[in-house]
Design a protein that fits this description.
Number of strands: 20
Number of helices: 13
CATH topology of the largest domain: Aminopeptidase
Radius of gyration: 24 Å
Strand content: 15-25%
CATH superfamily of the largest domain: Zn peptidases
């Protein structure tokens, strides 16, 4: 592959600097991952403050930014979590690069399932285990390593513009994210935005994430009676709400398991090697249980809609009695393909539900959540350079991947900064288990990610002035 001369020349130096400093960078990651900064109301908000302060100090200590500040926005009168913003303005026509990650983490979940203490990062077999070790404190330390490498190789008076935005509420749905962008638009405006919150195809094959599915979440309530009834007295003649709900939910998929809502957008994913056996292993599919849906595996998990009923409020088995329920609630999670509009998908979902409502039952709608999908449709200079930098650091060509889950704030970035090139990168791999017990990051891969981002910044500093 052909790299810009400056990147090709600096590859050995960047690799050498990161290698010499990797133990210190790993220690920094461990220190950050010990802080249980969780942006959910049930958890200690002081830990979130401590997390933001630790991140701010790391970048302030570089003495490379004009300012490093902790800021927050509000939504619906409620203040958001602390975010770290830093900026160094570009000089001599060089591009402004915004580095995004988030310092908040998921709750640990059932700690009895963890093989290590979730907030005592532990190194085993080349991986670092701990909550946030991969998602997304490794992203923060990757940015730190790249910035330090840039200063080392180009000198502290480099011309490249750098902006840092380390969010503090991504795992809680980023409720103030859009307001934060708009309130800090002048400071956050950039030519390129690097989002370090995704993953790679494998530990040995780097990737850029070019598609993300969106989300439509809808709570529904189905009612058939004005009060509960004895199931023996009226069963067989009167439909209870649970029966109506089960029949309704069953219409959302066809016999093959494809989403049966008419009119939803479907796309095609890049062709990459991913076998049925690998999917079964990665997903933990029980022996004898079959996959669902038509099309390639990657189409089904990246670029086609998927629907899951993630909750039903009826009656628990422990408290059940011979009673016909008058009403039942359910929560539907619909992942929508790149190119779909969430408002249109919600309308199609509601139309389907109303058309298939059995027994003349009534339906009402509760809480709704909408998240836009993302598709990178243009290949600018930044994507080309990122592919070259990843290929150099890994020694193999990078690939384009998708994510079946959603990162709704990416759509906000594209709307507030329509002229920016957005690169979605990351340090996770299929074994990272982000959000799950035993989350981890592969340390050798993390080191390559640091080198790749450093090459990108060094090459951006050498880019001819605009």
């Amino acid at each position: 592959m052909t790299l810009p001369n400056i990147a090709e020349q600096q590859l050995p130096a960047a690799s050498d600097f990161v290698a010499k400093n990797f133990d210190d960078l790993k220690a920094t990651l461990i220190s950050l991952a010990k802080i249980p900064g969780i942006a959910w109301e049930a958890f200690d908000e002081q830990e979130l403050e401590r997390s933001a302060e630790a991140v701010a100090k790391l970048f302030s200590d570089t003495q490379l930014f004009d300012f490093v500040e902790i800021r927050r926005a509000s939504a619906d009168g409620k203040p958001g979590a602390p975010a770290v913003v830093a900026k160094r303005a570009a000089k001599n026509g060089k591009p402004q690069i915004l580095l995004y990650a988030h310092h908040d983490v998921q709750p640990p979940g059932d700690e009895t399932v963890w093989q290590t203490n979730p907030f005592e990062p532990t190194e085993k077999n080349g991986r670092l285990y701990g909550r946030g070790a991969a998602d997304d404190k490794a992203g923060i330390v990757t940015h730190l390593a790249a910035v330090k490498t840039l200063a080392e190789l180009c000198g502290p008076d480099f011309d490249l513009g750098l902006t840092l935005f380390i969010e503090g509420e991504e795992e809680a749905g980023s409720p103030t994210f859009r307001n934060f962008l708009e309130e800090n638009q002048a400071d956050l405006k950039a030519d390129v935005i690097i989002v370090a919150d995704s993953g790679n195809w494998t530990v040995d094959v780097p990737a850029l994430t070019t598609t993300l599915r969106g989300l439509v979440s809808q709570v529904i309530e189905v009612s058939t009676l004005d009060h509960a009834l004895h199931s023996g007295m009226y069963g067989g003649a009167v439909p209870d709400a649970m029966l109506a709900m089960i029949k309704l939910l069953a219409t959302l998929h066809d016999d093959r398991g494809n989403v049966a809502i008419a009119g939803l957008v479907q796309g095609k994913a890049d062709e990459l090697p991913y076998s049925d056996a690998q999917l079964n292993t990665d997903a933990g599919l029980l022996p004898g249980t079959q996959q669902i849906g038509d099309g390639s595996i990657l189409d089904r998990i990246w670029t086609k809609p998927a629907l899951t009923v993630i909750g039903i409020d009826g009656q628990t088995v422990a408290l059940s009695s011979n009673t016909m329920l008058p009403s039942v609630k359910a929560k539907i999670s619909l992942r929508i393909a790149p190119g779909e509009q969430p408002e249109q998908a919600l309308a199609l979902l509601k139309a389907h539900l109303e058309a298939h409502l059995p027994f003349g039952a009534r339906i009402s709608y509760g809480e709704t959540e909408l998240g836009k999908p993302f598709a990178q449709t243009q290949d600018g200079w930044a994507k080309g350079l990122a592919e070259q930098a990843l290929g150099a650091a890994w020694g193999t060509k990078s690939v384009n991947i998708g994510i079946g889950g959603s990162i709704p704030f990416i759509a906000d970035l594209t709307q507030v900064f329509p002229d920016a090139q957005i690169l979605v990168t990351g340090v996770e791999d299929p074994d990272s288990r982000a959000h799950s017990p035993n989350e981890s990051v592969d340390l050798a891969m993390l080191q390559k990610a640091m080198v790749a981002e450093a090459i990108f910044l060094v090459s951006g500093n050498a880019k001819p002035g605009q």
